[in-house]
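Most newcomers find our protein records easier to grasp once they have seen one. To make this concrete, we reproduce a full record directly below:

===
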Amino acid sequence: MTISRKREQGPRLLRHIRLLQTEVLTSAQLAERLGCTQQEIQRAHRLLRAEGWNVQEMGRPKQYFLAPELPSETDPVRSVITHALLRMLHHHAPTPSRLYHRAALELSERLPERLREVTALDEPQGDTPRMLETLAAAWCWGQAVEFSYLKPGEQQPKRSVGDVVFMELGRTNLDWYVFIRQRGEDKVKTFHLSRFVEAVRREHDPSPTIAFDPRNELDGAWGIIGGRESCEITLRFAPETLAWGFWQLNADRLPSCD
């Protein structure tokens, strides 16, 4: 190996580590991003593992990512809480996303073997939708997102640009919801993840600071964050509806027409 080649290896290895920390990539994708061969990628993986880096692989073709270091001791209460979260996310609110699956795998590695045996994490099937990853990255990195969204009852999606301020699982249906303030508007609106048709991060368009308190914004209307206040709800029915309902409730008591 030439001296110049050795000098390139250090910075490239650092870029390699950063890629594995943030993305799930095949050897071919890593080689293309880093400007080297797939054989050099495999050598880098062996070197990282020898140095104690937790390089993991999944799927076919193999995809690689860097898992965080595991704690030396596992607290039983923390393990049970982690197990419950995994059950909710993976089994009750499944998302066919490889990064979503990777996050669940990382959590499962923290569980004692006894709990891991009853927490099977099936690999997602089919193509990996990028919607969750794109919106999550936009929120985490504070970047605007350009998206197309299909509202209920409409035939064509509408395109917009906005800033993600919050993401949450709905309590009643365990579906993902995204809270976005669209550019040019003052109010934060709620969007259902499954209705996004397309989403692209605008990496050079930083999001402004947007005040958003989930307790104030979601209390009562959302049903996830509880409050102490109560309210009285009055249901009003048309007279003909009341008459029909009375007849249905008392049908067995009315005299027969035979």
